[in-house]
Amino acid sequence: MTTHVAYTQVAGKPNWSRYLGWGLLLAALAWAWHGAEMNPMALVRDSSNMATFAADFFPPDFREWRSYLKEMLVTIQIALWGTALAIVCSIPLGILCA
User: Fold this and answer.
1) Positive or negative, the Cα torsion across 17, 20, 26, 32?
2) What are the structural domain ranges in the chain?
3) Rg (CA), the chain
4) Mean pLDDT taken over the chain
């Protein structure tokens, strides 16, 4: 018995709910792509601005270090909450998948 025959015997007919789920996932990703304004061609089109943008970081200017520190703490807080929520969501999903 070949692997393909064994797989088709176990898998059976195509599951349309699986295709629908993948379609919904791809639609959500397309929606998020547009909402996040992802535009790979903008990187190519505006590549001349990248050097100017990077040059503005040198030499570093620490006159507003308090503002930078505050925003760094906000970033850490967001990362902590994102990690905590991912753990909370992953436990029941992991049990459901097992």
Assistant:
1) negative
2) 1-58, 61-98
3) 23
4) 83
